[in-house]
Specification:
binds zinc ion; 327 residues; Rossmann fold; 10 helices; Quinone Oxidoreductase, Chain A, domain 1; alpha/beta
């Protein structure tokens, strides 16, 4: 099978011809039909996150079909494979239903080979049965941008005015969920990103501007999807007393020192790590009662490096998705 693999951190992915992986007990063999390109993939390729194994097939927003019946999954079942690819089931967090904090986790496309390939294997227990309808490329971003975005949205409390900093794949999904809940969304992009701001307004944001701008109202909560630590004190200055700033990314540059007055007034800073099975169930159940339209740019598998470069440059509205069978 064809796969795009990372051999050396900081180098482009290499198109490799590999044997189709063999599923172990508890695992499924999946033919990948679409795989989203997440910012975390960039952090892995660029070395912002330490390498866990090399060579590595990145990719953790996988949509595919079960290629061999196993583990109660029939041949041809459409499944999603998310970032959390395995947990120990024994540590105190797993036992408390907080498997997102597992002490011995395995992450898809990081500890395990992921979806930048024609096939992958995944632990059946971590696979998500996807609802019917929707094409695979448009579903793929839901598997991380959607799920982590949804966990972050829940972590934000129940805001009436929600700020989203970094208007990429996750924000464009969560804007739609929040709007359906009657929440007012304030979108922050890189200063001067008129295209990103127009994109946000088109999805229902009532205000869009640069991170250097201040919306007319104080916000109840802000989710930061951008990996820039200096945005944390900035966000604290934009939320009301008792407001919360949620850091949704797996990696962020250092947060600079800031005045205690910015935190005072029971403002809070929280982080979001990974996802639980309950997040996946809750998110896809929520999507039954509303329609989320993902905006995607599709790439052939062998164009994975281009997709990563476009994501790095911030030139994609919505999400980049690799489609192995794209003609
Ligand atoms: Zn991701
Ligand atoms: Zn565990």
């Amino acid at each position: 099978m064809r796969a795009m693999r990372l051999h050396r951190v900081g180098s482009p992915l290499v198109p490799d011809d590999m044997p189709v992986p063999v599923p172990q007990p508890g695992e499924l063999l999946i033919e990948v039909t679409a795989c989203g390109v997440c910012r975390t993939d960039l952090h892995i390729v660029d070395g912002d996150l330490p390498a866990h194994r090399l060579p590595l097939v990145p990719g953790h927003e996988i949509v595919g079909i079960v290629a061999a019946a196993a583990e109660g999954f029939a041949l041809g079942t459409r499944v999603g494979v998310p970032w959390l690819g395995g947990t120990c089931g024994e540590c105190s967090y797993c036992r408390a239903g907080q498997e997102n904090l597992c002490d011995r986790p395995q992450f898809t496309g990081y500890d395990r080979d992921g979806g930048y390939a024609e096939f992958c294997v995944a632990r059946a227990a971590n696979c998500i049965r996807l609802p019917p309808g929707g094409d695979d490329a448009h579903l793929a971003p839901l598997l991380c941008a959607g799920l982590i975005g949804f966990r972050s949205y829940r972590r934000a409390g129940a805001p009436r005015r929600l700020g989203l900093i970094g208007f990429g794949a996750a924000a464009h999904i969560i804007t739609q969920v929040a709007r359906a809940d009657g929440v007012s969304v304030y979108a922050f992009t890189r200063p001067g990103d008129a295209s990103g701001q127009a994109f946000a307004r088109g999805l229902g944001a009532i205000w869009a501007g640069g991170t250097n701008e201040r919306p007319p109202e104080e916000l109840d909560a802000i989710i930061i999807f951008a990996p820039a630590g200096e945005l944390v004190p900035r966000a604290l200055q934009l939320v009301r007393k008792g407001g919360r700033v949620v850091c949704a990314g797996i990696h962020m540059s250092d947060i600079p020192a800031f005045a205690y007055a910015d935190l005072w007034g029971e403002r809070e800073i929280a982080s979001v790590a990974n996802l639980t099975t309950a997040d996946a169930t809750g998110f896809f159940a929520r999507l039954k009662s509303m329609h989320v339209e993902t905006t995607v740019t599709t790439y052939r598998l062998d164009a994975a490096n281009q997709a990563l470069a476009d994501l790095r440059a911030g030139s994609i509205n919505g999400a980049a998705v690799l489609v192995p069978r794209l003609p």
